[in-house]
User: What shape does this take?
Amino acid sequence: MKRPTASNPRRSPLRLVLLASAATALLATASAGAAGTRHVVDKAANASLGKVVLVNLKHRTLYSLSVEKHGRFTCTGSCTSIWRPLLVPAGVKPTGPVSLGTVKRPEGRTQVTYKGLPLYSFSGDSKPGEANGEGIEDVGAWHAASVSKIATPPPAPPENPYPY
Assistant: This one.
């Protein structure tokens, strides 16, 4: 009988089945973790608003509607062609630079929320940095989802009027 060596180990069929099962379990766990979260939001300084706002992955400003609270939706139907909901597949936890949540829309899709308010992009913003939807009022007011105000540097000290 041949003695097992490092280059020619003996493997029983049971050992191979156990190794294959372990590898499958590891892959399934890794896949579940990857499918369980998705990065969907970034933040960017918006000079025109003087705020740091949330943006989608195309760097378009994200907005919320003031009256949409506690799972109550006003923007449905044709409204969603102008104000596009930020959606994720059911069961996916959205991630970004701030704490995000989700809410189920009336038609059953899952929408991303920030501070409990559903997030939307505005069809009137065609490039990064625009915030054309800010302050639009219909059944409520649309506002960019802001994280903070832009920090302004302190004023420069006055020049010395008496040079030496």
Confidence is low (pLDDT under 50) at residues 16-34.
